[in-house]
Write a structure and sequence with these properties.
The structure is a single chain. The chain contains 16 helices and no strands. Helix 2 packs antiparallel against helix 3, helix 4 (114-135) packs antiparallel against helix 7 and helix 12 packs antiparallel against helix 15 (405-426). With 442 residues, it is mainly alpha-helical. The protein has helices spanning 31-39, 50-81, 84-109, 114-135, 141-165, 175-201, 205-224, 243-250, 252-268, 274-281, 286-309, 316-336, 340-367, 374-403, 405-426, 428-432. It has a single domain, classed as Growth Hormone, Chain: A (Up-down Bundle). It is globular and about 50 Å long. It starts with 30 loop residues before the first helix and ends in a 10-residue tail after the last helix.
Length: 442
């Protein structure tokens, strides 16, 4: 597949190097290039770009609101129903728009202004949050699930555009650094959101939904102020809706990383069951629940800061496999724990290991993809990752309903370890992949 080459006059692409067509993206790294990258490593490279700082501030505020709302919904639904399966359906109903609309959303992101799509969908998500505030504790649970479907639809339609927007506001030479900082920002927001929700829920769940609405509007305003590079449409060989699927299938290293993440999170997701562990196993209240919801984000944030300051990984593929294996092992210990501090520590490790996977996967998905296809490939990535999160929540809730919360979490952790072994054997490319700094389009 031909590659979309950015204009040499665009300041965001001054460090872009044409790919070496004789060297596949998954080949072993050039040691001299890797050593030079380590010597020149600037941990704050992406933050030196004004548009990235604007994007990062808005994204952080938006995620804080989303995480606050997610925690409040889980608490309210379980408080009103006492049902494990209802917690699972929180993820299940959000998976429906994802599976139906992710591919059209990716095509939209490759066709129209990504900044405006991001702005509009954030406004729609804000309106849905206000609707949840009106319905909270006043309407049947099914009505809240209906609004949640609409909210998820808005987020699904905007997600590929937002993901594909990032390479348009930073040079490709610092994109890996931007992904690392973006992951750090996400984890800070994921850490603050549940903790703030735990405090506010004591007084009013409805207030959390209103705050999320304001956060979404703030991101919409800041996103509209961005000045991204023009979308490169010079590669017009394939404008079809399923082009992203074909690209991912033919780029084995991308297929390997997102498949690994899909099954690991699908089986190893314990976060949807945190209200059960907080109330019935660890016997802590809403503050303790907020701490548990924030723990994995704290671990991920610490890891993201380390990754930003350390030189680029020389063996990114191997590190990703080890990290996902650590994710599974920590999930098993969390499921067996009866001590709050031990459970908190395991969630810290879960977040730290997951962050390594996020940085490697997202860097490869965006760097190895031509700009004209980034929306559609991001959509495929979102289907894999979204399915693992939302359907994983449904799987956790249903297995907890049938076999108990502890069995659900522990079995999922063992399943994650089996997934790591299987992927490493089926996709040897991931074991051999070297430095992210040397990743280039095939």
């Amino acid at each position: 597949m031909s590659e979309a080459v950015p204009s040499p006059n665009d300041p965001r692409n001054i460090a872009y190097e044409p790919p070496d067509e004789d060297r596949p993206a998954s080949a072993a790294p050039d040691e001299s290039q890797t050593d030079q990258a380590q010597q020149l490593h600037d941990p704050y490279a992406a933050l030196r770009f004004g548009d990235f700082r604007l994007y990062a501030i808005g994204w952080m505020i938006s995620v804080i609101g989303q995480q606050m709302q997610a925690a409040a919904l889980a608490w309210e639904i379980f408080d009103r129903t006492g049902s494990y399966s209802a917690l699972g359906w929180l993820g299940g109903v959000q998976a429906v728009p994802l599976l139906l609309l992710a591919l059209p959303a990716g095509h939209l992101a490759d066709t129209f202004d990504r900044r405006r799509i991001t702005t509009l969908t954030s406004i729609l998500a804000s309106l849905c949050s206000l609707a949840l505030a009106v319905l909270s504790y006043r309407a049947p649970i099914n009505w809240m699930f209906g609004v949640l479907v609409l909210s998820s639809t808005a987020l699904v339609m905007g997600r590929p555009a937002r993901s594909a927007l990032l390479p348009q506001i930073v040079p490709l030479s610092v994109f890996s650094n931007a992904v690392t900082w973006n992951a750090s920002i996400f984890q800070v927001a994921t850490m603050l959101g549940p903790a703030l929700a735990g405090l506010i829920i004591i007084f009013s769940v409805r207030t959390v939904y209103v705050i999320d609405a304001l956060c979404a509007l703030t991101f919409a305003a800041l996103a509209f102020l961005l000045k991204p590079a023009n979308l490169d449409k010079s590669d017009n060989t394939d404008r079809s809706l399923i082009a992203g699927i074909r690209f991912v299938w033919n780029t084995r290293i991308i297929l390997a990383t997102i498949t690994l993440d899909l099954f690991a999170v699908l089986l190893g997701g314990a976060l949807y069951l945190l209200p059960v562990f907080a109330k019935q196993i660890l016997n802590v209240g809403s503050l303790g629940f907020g701490g548990l919801r924030a723990a994995d984000a704290i671990g991920a944030f610490v890891m993201a800061i380390l990754l930003a300051h350390l030189p680029p990984m020389k063996h990114a593929g191997r590190n990703m496999l080890l990290a996902v294996a650590g994710f599974g092992a920590a999930t098993i210990v969390f499921g067996l724990s009866r001590n709050y501090l031990l459970s908190f520590a395991m969630l810290l490790l879960i977040g730290a290991f997951d962050n390594i996977s996020v940085v490697v996967r997202h860097t490869l998905v965006q760097v190895l993809t031509p700009d004209s296809m980034r929306g559609r490939v991001s959509a495929v990535n979102n289907i894999f990752i979204g399915a693992s999160n939302e359907i994983g929540g449904l799987e956790s809730g249903l297995t907890a309903h049938w076999f108990g919360a502890i069995t659900s979490v522990v079995a999922g952790g063992f399943g994650t370890l089996l997934v790591v072994l299987s992927i490493s054997l089926l996709f040897p490319q991931i074991r051999r992949f070297g430095s992210l700094h040397n990743a280039k389009p095939e």
